[in-house]
Write a structure and sequence with these properties.
heterodimer; A: three-stranded antiparallel sheet; 8 strands; B: 731 residues; alpha+beta; seven-stranded antiparallel sheet; five-stranded antiparallel sheet; 18% strand; globular; Hydantoinase B/oxoprolinase family protein (chain B); Hydantoinase_B (chain B); Oxoprolinase-like (chain B); Acetone carboxylase subunit gamma (chain A); Aceto_COase_bsu/gsu (chain A)
Chain lengths: 162, 731
Amino acid sequence: MTSYDTHAIGDLIDGTLPWPATKQMMSGYKDDTRFDTYLEVLQQRVPWPEEILLPIGEHLYIVKGAEGRVVKCDCGHEFGDYRENWKLQARIRVRDDQESIEEIYPGRFACDASWMELREFLCPGCLTLLEVEAAPPGFPVVFDFLPDLEALYQDWLGRPVP
Amino acid sequence: MTLTDPTTENPTLHDRLLAGDRIFAETGNYAGIDTLELREDDPIKYESLHVKLRSTVVNARDMARRISASPGVREVGESVVALFTPEGDAIALSTGIMVHVHTASRFIKWMIQNDYEESPGIRHGDIFANNDAFIGTVQAPDVIDVTPIFHEGELIGWVAAVCHELEVGGITPGGDVALAQERYTEGLFVCAEKVGENDELRRDYLIRLERNLRMPIYWVLDEKAKVAACLEVRDQVLDLVDQVGVDYYKQATKEFIEEGRRGQLSRMRQLTVPGRYRGHTFFGHVTEGKNGVLPLGNKNWLYAIPMEMEVSAEGKLSIDFDGTNSWGYHSMNCTPAGMDGGMFVTLTQHMNYDGKVNDGAWLATELNLPSGTWTNPERETVATATSWALLLPAYGVFQRMLSRGFLARGFKEEVFVGQVNSPMIEMGGESQYGGQFGIALFECAAAGSGALGIKDGLDTSYVGWNPESDMGNMEVWEQDMPMVYLGRSISPNSGGFGRYRGGCGFESLWLVNNSSQLIAATSEHSSRVFDNAGMCGGYPAPTVQLHHSTHDAGIPERAAERKPLPHSLGSDPHESDLAKFADGTTHVEEGPYLATPLRHGDLFAHSYNGGGGYGDPLERDPGAVARDVANGYVTADVAAAVTGVVVEGTEVDEEATRARREGIVRGRRENSVPVSEWIQQQSQRIRRKDLAPEVAEMYRDSMSLSRRFAAEFREFWQLPEDFEFEAQPTR
């Protein structure tokens, strides 16, 4: 059965796994131990003790907190209950005029600010750019992912949610 | 209708189709198979048959490509060959445009449902063709041929071959007919017709093609290629049936499909996370006042494509398009067959890439296509010629939602920001040889891909609809159109920024050559809005494409005088190289290019999209930015502005980079507010309805089609229950 150690998965996360090994990982049979190895690597890297239940983005995890399952950034900032959209607890920079859009997309590359704005969702703790939404003004903020943790752990992994 | 028990003697195909549906509904398994007996009894024999069937269709496609005269099929590989059960369920597919896992199924089932067994009859040697998307394909240029396979008088299956045609005889030249606004302007339709008998194409069918197409040679020779592929597969399948026995063949092929269904469910459980995923994309179509636009289509359109994906505890995948907009008088509508196609060409790349790609996976998925929307117009007179315009952005969202699951489970090597549209240029008029011509220039089959979760996206070499993406050689295209290339170049800054950059798109610049009338038409590019996105902090690719043309550019004269010539749009985003290095006046056109015909001596430029980025651009490796600058993939000024990496020459200025990145972080703090505060501000704006007319119309339409969308919109912006947008007055 295919299996990778924490070094290989750590390199994969960092984007430093050599391409031949990455290609082999892409083309070969998937390893059933991946999730646990992945969690182990991520848990070692974060500076806080709460148990990671599920990563949901770069830098963002659902963790087992003192007051329930919350979304947490690896800087330590908490966004609240994972069943609510973490973006609503973030900071936002909105590029909704041509000047600010053209900082990223100059001249002919720009979208029309009256038809589309760029919303940059930032962690209030470390100001990492966590997600960018490109949407017409007025489009409600998207709740990207609401995992069914019970089904994942109980039905798919065969163990209770920690 | 009384069902005939399919186990009794001589059930009709129609009976068998209905019985199959009933058995699946009752048992949840394909053909009621609860145990893969043949697989368990002798796995080597079972797998051997599958591999041989797969090889047969792959080889037949390769052979067909060499018969075809169309550069779309020969160079770009726009074809696929597949094998089906008698009821029309896909057993095995070749590589190629695997969109057609289920579109050809729909075509075969449609013939069965419409009693083709009785009339026009289904006999050995018959050839049926279809390019009607409401029967079963994606768009008119995807012409499917099928032939039945009879064994000792019994129909035991079908072979299908598909080629994407470069010219279909529509209101504008080419295959993806940009200006089609109703079915009646899309070109030549072949509606599940018997086009051949006794293994030969009928002469009257070929005459119809010759008299209704601008460039019949492509379609006619593609027909011959497809028929050759079908007959080759048919004969090889019959040889295999002789080897394994017909009963074994029939049972094994059913087990392949059931195994495909189980494989799809287990792959979802293995790679993703159960739950609810959401995403969106948008598409702008600016056609108001354009040449040739009919009264009902004379407006600008903004499409919202919100999508929800549910992964059940069983592993079943459901996609819901609730909240998207109405069909319209344009060519971008889609049919349920096309929506199947878009989903399958995506699934075959992410889920079903290593095993039994067949209709089993279709049985493990579900699409909700709301009636009256572009996804399901339920009006068979609408045009679907450029349905990829909305399909591709939509299934790019699908790829990002799937990738969220891959990311959560730790399979970062599978995380992919997704496909983008790749705009088409089609043309017709007077050829360089003096006759009439028409062609879709299929170099669009090589956009930039979205970034991956571990590396940059692919530059100029990926489109979602053809996993073997290839732009074709310039010299080949020059043989078929009255234009010569002045350049084909990577477009700098065309990939979305991020820790990993989206793949770059490219642009071509042509000089019109020896033609007094070249009618160009472009499609599948969004105006005013980006039709893709980034992921996890990456930015979307800049996919708002404009068209640049110069009349009487004076290129030969400039060359003789040794003056600089344009070879691309250039790296200056404010003024193109056409404006700088050509005579005459350069025109910049927004939206589909439906302008005055070009002629000898004119220039025309067309750009293809890059893909979205992944991760925070401030986390991008400075060395990677320096390489991008050195290679012309990004310009130093934009790299510094977005990634904070300052490149001098080919070297990173580390000190300046540190200062620049700190400045960007400061800017983030100073220019941002808590989301709750922004929502309060924006809520006032929404109450005032202070939005562009097209944006307000998009919301009015979505809210009128979807109660859920309307309720969520009002709840999010804390609006009264009776809040709504008014319909815009029609002119």
